[in-house]
Amino acid sequence: MDKRNYLILLLTITLLGCDKGISPDDTLIVKPGFGGTITYVSSPPPRDSLIQLRIVAVPYYPIDTVVGALIQKILLGEIPFSDTLQLSSIDSGKTQRYEFLVQPGEYKYVAVVQQYGVFIFEDWRVISIFGFSPSTPFPRPVTVTVDKFQTGIDFIVDFKNLPPQPFKK
Q1: What's the structural domain count of the chain?
Q2: pTM for the structure as a whole
Q3: Cα–Cα nearest to 104, from 44, 168, 40, 148
Q4: How many angstroms separate the CA atoms of 115 and 48, rounded?
Q5: Which residues constitute the domain of residue 155?
Q6: What is the mean pLDDT of the chain?
Q7: What are the pLDDT digits (tens) for 71-106?
Q8: In a 10 Å sphere around its CB, with 0-12 CB exposed, 13-18 middle and 19+ buried, how is residue 38 labelled?
Q9: Residue 11 domain-assigned?
C-alpha cells in the first residue's frame, strides 16, 4: 500500500469516528427547577424527632388539608417532593444550599417540611414557607419555566417559632 492509500484510510477512519463534538445546544440545556439556601437560626430538635427534612412544592395553597391526603398526592407524583436534605448541615447559624428539579408550572406553596415521628403518613410539620414572615403571612408563589432554573428561593428555619400549619389532624 502506498502513502496515498494510507492517507485515504486514515482520513476515512477519522471522519467516520467524528461525533461532531459538542454542539452549542448541548451547553445551553437548562433543567427546570429552583434552588437557594436554607438558613437555620435556632438549634434543631432532638435527633429522634428529626427523621428527615424535605422541600415540597404544592401547586395550590393546602389550607385545612389532612396531611395523609397530601402524602398520597406526593406518592402519586402530583406534588413534587425533594430528596432528603442533608441532616448533618442542620444547626443554629448554618446555611445549607439545595437544588430541586420540578416540572414547569406555578407552585403556590413551597415549604421545608420535617418528619418528626415514625408514622410516615401523619408525622410531618412545616418548618419554613417561602415568602412567609409575620409581616407577610401568605406564601410567595414560585414560577418555574421550561428554560430557566429559578434561584433565590431561600428559607429561614426557626425550630422554636414554626410557621402556621396548614394541616388538619
Answers
A1: 1
A2: 0.79
A3: 148
A4: 10
A5: 23-168
A6: 84
A7: 888 888 889 999 999 888 788 889 999 999 999 999
A8: buried
A9: no
